[in-house]
Amino acid sequence: xxxxxxxRNEAGSIQSFSMSGHAEFDVRGKDxxxxxxxxxxxxxxxxxFENAKIEPIIDQGKDGGYLAIEIPxxxxxxxxxxxxxxxxxxxxxxxxxxxxxxxxxxxxxx
Length: 110
Known about the structure:
Belongs to the Prp family. This is Ribosomal processing cysteine protease Prp. By secondary structure, the protein is α+β, with helices and mostly antiparallel strands. It has helices at residues 32-50, 77-100, and strands at 2-8, 14-20, 57-60, 66-70, 105-109. Strands 3-4-2-1-5 form a five-stranded mixed β-sheet, covered by helices on one side. A hairpin with a 5-residue loop joins strand 3 and strand 4 (66-70). Helix 1 packs antiparallel against helix 2 (77-100). The model has no long low-confidence stretch (mean pLDDT 96).
């Protein structure tokens, strides 16, 4: 099972998230749940670099079964807004996957 944890700061914005595990929906290379969750997560990370112009703190496992992202301190309000839009879009996309494939992906919040 893929486990996703979102952590929010005092203002309610997503400050970090982690994904761990494997969906095991199908065999490696055909696992649509894993592919979907990975594509959404890596798309969000790439968008943080490209659209928010920040370098998130990234911790990635060697076997592809772990990804953790933390947002560094940001002062600029427009940058904060871009980060929030990107991470809330990530959350919504993963929740959509969870609605249809809840036995393979679980999202929690801290």
